[in-house]
Every structure is written in C-alpha cells, then in structure tokens.
Amino acid sequence: xxxxxxxxxxxxxxxxxxxxxxxxxxxxxxxxxxxxxxxxxxxxxxxxxxxxxxxxxxxxxxxxxxxxxxxxxxxxxxxxxxxxxxxxxxxxxxxxxxxxxxxxxxxxxxxxxxxxxxxxxxxxxxxxxxxxxxxxxxxxxxxxxxxxxxxxxxxxxxxxxxxxxxxxxxxxxxxxxxxxxxxxxxxxxxxxxxxxxxxxxxxxxxxxxxxxxxxxxxxxxxxxxxxxxxxxxxxxxxxxxxxxxxxxxxxxxxxxxxxxxxxxxxxxxxxxxxxxxxxxxxxxxxxxxxxxxxxxxxxxxxxxxxxxxxxxxxxxxxxxxxxxx
Length: 325
What we know:
The protein is an alpha+beta fold. It has a domain at 57-182. It has helices at residues 3-71, 74-85, 88-96, 106-116, 180-188, 231-234, 259-310, 320-323, and strands at 120-127, 133-137, 144-146, 157-164, 169-178, 197-201, 207-212, 240-246, 252-258. Strands 3-2-1-5-4 form a 5-stranded antiparallel β-sheet. It has a 4-stranded antiparallel β-sheet with strand order 7-6-9-8. A hairpin with a 5-residue loop joins strand 6 and strand 7. It is rod-shaped and about 135 Å long. The chain starts with a helix and ends with a helix. The chain crosses the membrane at residues 12-34, 270-289.
C-alpha cells in the first residue's frame, strides 16, 4: 500500500474524529446552556408571579382592614353620608357638635390612614346615592369631593363594597390604589424581571397594570388575558414563556418572558465556548497537517531514495538536514 496515502487517510480520519468529538461536546454544552436558560426563565416567571400575587393579596387584606376602620359601623357610614351631603363648613360644624364621644371628621380620618398604612397611592369612594366621588392621594391626603376624577393609567386598584350593617346592603364602593413606585422597586429587586413583562387584569379581563423590564419592549399591552388561557397546551405556539396566577379577589397576574431574549442570553453565555471550540479545531488541524504532512514527505523521500539505490545509484544519499526541519 502507498504509505503516504495511508498516512494522509489516517490523518484525515483522525482529524474528523477529533473535530467530531469537540463539536459534539460543544453542542451538548450549548444544549445544556439553553435548557438552563429556559428553566431559569420559567423559575423567574414563577417568582415574579408569586411576588405580584402576594403583593396584591396583601393589598386586598390591607383594604379590608382600612375599610373596617373607616366604615365599620352605622355611625361611621352616616358620618360619610353627612360629608357627601353637606358643604365643608356645615360638615365641620356638625362634626364639632358630635356628642357621641368619638371624634368623626372624615378628612382627618382619611389623612390618618396614610400615616398608619404603607404603600397607598390613593383612596376613592363612591356612594350609590351621590353623583360626586371622594378622592384623595399622597399629595392631598385629606381629599375632596369631585365630579370627575383625574385619569390614571397603569395602576393597581382594590375595590370593596361598602356594606351598611343595618340592612347588609351595598351602599357604595371603596377603592384603594396601590403605590406603583413601591411595586416597581420591589419588582426590580427580583431576578429576571429585566426581561419580563408583568400584566395585571381585572376579574372582567381588562388590563389594569403592566410593567416592562428594561430589556422588554412591552408590546403585549392590548392583549386580553384570554390570550394566555390554556397555557400548557399553547406554550410552544407563542413567542413568550407565560406564567399566570390569580389573587384572592380574582385579579389575574400574567408574567411573560420573550423566548427571543432567553435564546439571546443563552447564546451570549455559549458564545465564548463556541469561539474556543472553533479555535481548538483550527489549531488541531494546523498541528496535525504540519506534523503528519512533514512525516509523509519524509517517508516519500526515503521511498524515492531506496528506489534509486535499487537502480544502482549507490551514490544517492538522504538529505538529513532537510528532514530535521
């Protein structure tokens, strides 16, 4: 058999085997990195959904406590009715003449709530018998009566009926608005939220609140929560990893992480390993071809020289100096 050709064939086979091993190893590591990124995305979604659910559940409990303190008996509800029906001077005079022993002055009662409770952005009250609404916020804690409310977008509201204890009927609605700054601060302290979009829907599937991390374009604002129902069945058809939970009162929390961002992060983690693998393949090929190529040329020279010697060219010698290069 022609030895140079044999060596060349062995060289190619060895190179193919080594490159295949390195490539397979790189692919296995890349797949592992991608699976970890996908698992992390699901875990981070679950963590963010749990945080938002707990935050809203706490706000719902907080609202019930505040409502009980402010309007927990018939006297306090009658005081609120007086506030709505009288002008400010008449209401103040009536409050000062109160002989029940408990000072009930609605603006002061509301203002006190902000000092006793944390995380409140505003309070809104509507009574069935009045066209006006009561509204207060951090800027004007005592609040006032208004025909129209300022338009606020992107805020989480907790609504509770005002129940009159004498007839057990709803006389209006008490609404607490959660402070968005506190929610956002706590969200951003949670792992993975820079890639996430967090949506909160009412029990009638209307978008109430949305948060988009700095790496998320936030293009799901107008989607109905029904788009994310039957998540397990439709997960592979969507561009997002989706986690959905629900608060005690039925508010729906949907956390989205775009698959494109997960894949991008996985590729960034895998990139340097891929570059290293390509460099190793290149260096390996260079070393193999230089080493075995030189060896093949030496064998060919020896074969040619031996053939000439057999042809009686006894003066022929192998150039050893060239073979040491």
